[in-house]
Amino acid sequence: MKNILLIFLGGGLGSVLRYGTVVGMARDLVDCPGATLVPPSDVAALAAALAELGEANDLATRGEAARRMIEGRFTWPKIAVAYEGLFEEVRTGFRTDSSKSI
Q: Is residue 17 part of a domain?
């Protein structure tokens, strides 16, 4: 699911995320201009977010901004550094920097 989200956002497509799914890599997408967050189990908020996404006049602008963000944030060198930190945490059993993410 997370990879699909990157594909959508990297391709300039808008996405709607439930708060309950904003963990791991998805938490790095909270500030993405192409992503809209809605609380879990809030059908009205989900419907409103989907309607807004369908009616937005600035989808191309938001999509391009989302694509640039994904391309800048999720490069292979950055992913490698994040994995290196994760492996070190596993090896030592200690989280060195809780704010570090991809």
A: yes
